[in-house]
Amino acid sequence: MKFLTSARPLPAPPQTLHGIDRMVRNIETGRFERSLSAMTAVGSVITAAEIYFEHDKASFGNPNMWLPVIGGPIGAAAGIAGFFSQRMAKTALPIASTLIVANGLQGVYLHARGIRQKPGGWKNFRYNMEMGPPLLAPLLVTLVGGMGLLAAILRREA
To answer: Residue 86 CB: number of other CB atoms within 10 A?
Structure first.
């Protein structure tokens, strides 16, 4: 009995696929855990470095500015561990990713508060958006944490 029908047949089993065809097959079947874990690790390092330089320009005036910088290496370590170990991908990676997402959401709040504290506050929105803390920048780190959470619920590549 056929439960699922599709307009187009899936490619051949992974044993006969190579390169990009194998990657597409893994994504179509929800097997993307290792790759997404590795992307989380790389994304964590890149965003932590960028955040460090931006927060350094502000002289780390608020101690909370260190949290995403510290979270970067933690996310990278969890991503690397998740790449090599399925157990780590299901334990350490979601814990680290949840902390990164929470910190990113906290960053949106703190950046919004920083814009409000500029002269004119929200009434001078356009100027304060350009000259104040970047309101949407913390969502980048939230996205990296989201990749780690997604990796934790996907299946391992064949």
So the answer is: 14
Q: Is the dihedral of CA 88, 96, 101, 135 positive or negative?
A: negative
Q: pTM for the whole thing?
A: 0.82
The DSSP code sequence of 22-66 is: HHHHHHHTTB-HHHHHHHHHHHHHHHHHHHHHHHHHTTT-SGGGH
Q: Which residues contact 4 (CB under 8 A, 6 or more apart)?
A: none
- CA separation (Å) from 23 to 9, 46, 108? 16, 24, 34
Give the model confidence (pLDDT) of 89-118 as tens digits. 999 999 999 999 999 999 999 999 999 999
Instruction: Report phi then psi at 31, rounded to 5.
Output: -105, 90
